[in-house]
Amino acid sequence: MNIVVLNGSPKGDISVTMQYVAYIRKKFPEHHYETLNVAHEIRKIENDPAAWDNILGSIRSADLVLWAFPLYYFLVCSQYKRFIELVFERKAEDAFNGTYAAALSTSIHFFDQTAHAYIHAICDDLGMKYLGFYSADMQDLLSEVERKRFEQFASLTFTAVQEKVPVQREHAPLAWPTTPYVPVTQPGPVTTGTKKVVILTDADGRTPGLTAMTDRLLTNFSGSAELINLHDVDIRGGCLGCCQCGFDNTCVYNDGYVDFYNNKLVPADIIIMAGSVHDRYLSSAWKRFFDRSFFKGHTPGLKGKQVGFVISGPLHQLPHLKEALLAWADNGGCHARFVTDEVPGAKELDALLDSMAVRLLQAAESGYIPPHTFYAVGGHKIFRDSIYGRMKLAFQADYRYYRAHGMFDFPQADFKTRFQNAFLIPLTRIPGFRKKVFADLKHHMIKPFQPVLKDA
Do residues 112 and 78 lie in contact, with contact meaning Cβ atoms separated by under 8 Å? Predict the structure, then answer.
């Protein structure tokens, strides 16, 4: 069987993900494997027609395509994202059509599900026969139990290809808004006062509706509002995954991204992020923006911002995209609102954009940030435990930040609860005591709130 591995690591062969591929090659040597470093070599692939043709030729000859990648900010890295964009831009879907596909990722299980939902949907759009995914913790290969599980996944996947099992498509084709947005009403001015507004866009002339939406918002704000196109920012490449920034938040790139981030975004009170849907996500330019913010590590660099997402395209058909953006905002300590052009008419979109401007400013003036949901609560615990332990050496800047801000809030530090449990749990083994406690449990649960309500 001919297996083509599409390597989504910007580090090429020297990546954790590729160690998993190497393991499978050793365990199943009867198959032929070819690894294409499409993320690492994305610039060459974009500019060299021969390199592009060679890749398509390899894919056409494959019995199985394995999408293998590390997670970068809820998804794949921007370089891998750009490769996927090229497939559709150059209308090369036929090279993938009808071929079996599977996915392999490495991460610390922080939103791996959104990345795999994206890859699955891409496979469906390409007409591939998607067999499933394996989401590995970066260190799973060091465990005998996990190696066994990984071998089982590979064996079952290879068997499915050899037996030519039927596969059903799960993601319907996207239906795009058909009417370009042209405002029909005059915007009401929103005075920003002391609040600073930054509107970021990736508009490149191909999405006039997106430009119309950002122009509308810019007209809405009367005061300190600035429109910045990501294509005008000096960003010379995607995140390399080198982790050199982990020591003191200094990026290995010598371009304008860090200054742009610190001088334009950090001082802002309101940040509106405007983008159009490209395949099943935003553009690779937006993905590069998110990835490069990793110079801040796992710390909330834009904490307290009001964030508006203005999306041109079928956002409501892409739950993994909205989930990723919501989770990004929640983990960053921000407050997010959304507007898309998936509306019946321009008048309604006018009103939605005007309302977004007003509500973002109201929230900024009041300083309102909603309480964290599972996205941030769960994310905090994953990062907290990892940074305290195995990731401490690589991410020392994170460790210093977490320690300084009391973020190593391990449950075992709650001595009051530990004492109560040590005293009361043994007593519940006594039938009479247990019956009394559990019969009146609901009143015990609300008792601590009574003083608060009395003094309100």
Answer: no
Q: Quick check: 130 and 124 in contact, CB under 8 A?
A: yes
pLDDT of residue 442 exceeding 90, the answer is: no
Residue 451 to residue 456: CA distance in whole angstroms: 9
Q: Supply the Cα-derived Rg of the chain in whole angstroms.
A: 25
36-85 confidence digits (pLDDT tens): 999 999 999 999 999 999 999 999 999 999 999 999 999 999 999 999 99
- What does each C-alpha distance from 219 to 214, 222, 340, 370 come to in angstroms? 9, 7, 18, 28
Distance between CA atoms of 396 and 99, rounded to whole angstroms? 44
Contact indicator for 170, 124 with CB cutoff of 8 Å: yes
- In the block, residue with structure tokens 């040590």: 422
Strands lying side by side in the sheet with 197-201: 225-229, 197-201, 270-276, 306-312, 335-340
Distance of alpha carbon 282 from alpha carbon 284, whole angstroms? 7
pTM of the predicted model as reported, rounded to 2 decimal places: 0.94
Fill in the DSSP letter of residue 281: B
Which amino acid is residue 264, in one-letter code? K
> For the chain, which domains are there?
2-162 (3.40.50.360), 190-366 (3.40.50.360), 414-455 (no CATH)
Q: How far from 8 is each of 12, 261, 328, CA to CA, in Å?
A: 8, 26, 21
**Distance between CA atoms of residues 12 and 346, nearest Å:** 46
Q: Which residues have C-beta within 8 Å of that of residue 158, sequence separation ≥ 6?
A: 1, 28, 31, 64
Residue range 362-419, pLDDT digits in tens = 999 999 999 999 999 999 999 999 999 999 999 999 999 999 999 998 876 678 888 8
CA distances from 424 to 131, 319, 415, 417, 432 (A): 50, 45, 14, 10, 13
Mutual angle of helices 431-439 and 415-427, in 10-degree steps: 120
Q: How many CA atoms lie within 13 Å of 441's alpha carbon, on the beta-carbon side?
A: 7
